[in-house]
Write a structure and sequence with these properties.
Largest interface: A-B, 21 and 21 residues
Number of strands of chain B: 11
Number of helices of chain B: 0
Structural class of chain A: mainly beta
Distance between the termini of chain A: 40 Å
Radius of gyration of chain A: 13 Å
Radius of gyration of chain B: 13 Å
Largest sheet of chain A: 6 strands, mixed
Oligomer: heterodimer
Order of helices and strands of chain A: EEEEEEEEEEE
Shape of chain B: globular
Strand content of chain A: over 45%
Number of strands of chain A: 11
Strand content of chain B: over 45%
Shape of chain A: globular
Helix content of chain B: under 10%
Helix content of chain A: under 10%
Distance between the termini of chain B: 37 Å
Structural class of chain B: mainly beta
């Protein structure tokens, strides 16, 4: 079946380095994608989104890249900080409903 | 500041009991959603609403119901709680049905 998924369940990053979190999707009709961050005991927090008519979008320390040819989405975090330790989810919008991947746990090493 | 709040934050109940989880948002968003989060499954959509008196079933709606009598609230009811419904439940709202959803901090529900 079609689904949204993340390539790796865990990612360990040295503080100050850049992080790249990947996500693959299989529904070519999806036209909207969102990245969320979830800290322990909290709800998912919106980070950044991108529509299918764009390839790249930048926010504060974060960049989302969308490659529709290979159905791939990535989140880049610049100069990773300890506060970036969390679970990151990508979500795909189909028929106005979001489908979430299982998440990547990012751990920042001091 | 506008926000979305869920209550209770934690609840323990017994199988067969009726349970209602509250969700209240002060953004005046028309669109509201309920998800459950389980290990290995990410977030799965239970029910959603695009406005007052509108409710729709999501991916995992069996055993759950919602009602929307006003813009601010979308309570989720488990008619007869089952152990398989032990989970963390999240409510979300959005201004645009195809836009970013903003989540509450969840209710951890344990059914014994």
């Amino acid at each position: 079946g079609e689904s949204v998924g993340l390539h790796l369940p865990t990612l360990s990053v040295q503080e100050g380095d850049n992080s790249i979190i990947n996500c693959a999707y299989s529904n070519s009709a999806s036209d909207y994608f969102i990245w969320y961050k979830q800290e322990s005991g909290k709800g998912p927090q919106f980070i950044i989104d991108i529509r299918s008519n764009m390839d790249k979008r930048q926010g504060q320390r974060v960049t989302v890249l969308l490659n529709k040819t290979v159905k791939h989405l990535s989140l880049q975090i610049a100069a990773t900080q300890p506060g970036d330790s969390a679970v990151y989810f990508c979500a795909e919008s189909r028929d106005y409903k979001l489908s979430f991947g299982a998440g990547t746990t990012v751990t920042v090493r001091a | 500041d506008a926000e979305i709040t869920q209550s209770p934050r934690h609840k323990i109940t017994e199988t067969g009991r009726q349970v209602t989880l509250a969700c209240h948002q002060t953004w005046n968003h028309n669109n509201m959603f309920w998800y459950r989060q389980d290990l290995g499954h990410g977030l799965r959509l239970i029910h959603y609403s695009y406005g007052v008196q509108d409710t729709n079933k999501g991916e995992v709606s069996d055993g759950y119901s919602v009602s929307r009598s006003n813009t601010e609230d979308l309570p989720l009811t488990l008619e007869s709680a089952a152990s398989s419904q032990t989970s963390v439940y999240f409510c979300a709202s959005s201004v645009d049905p195809d836009g970013p959803q903003h989540f509450g901090d969840g209710t951890r529900l344990s059914i014994l």
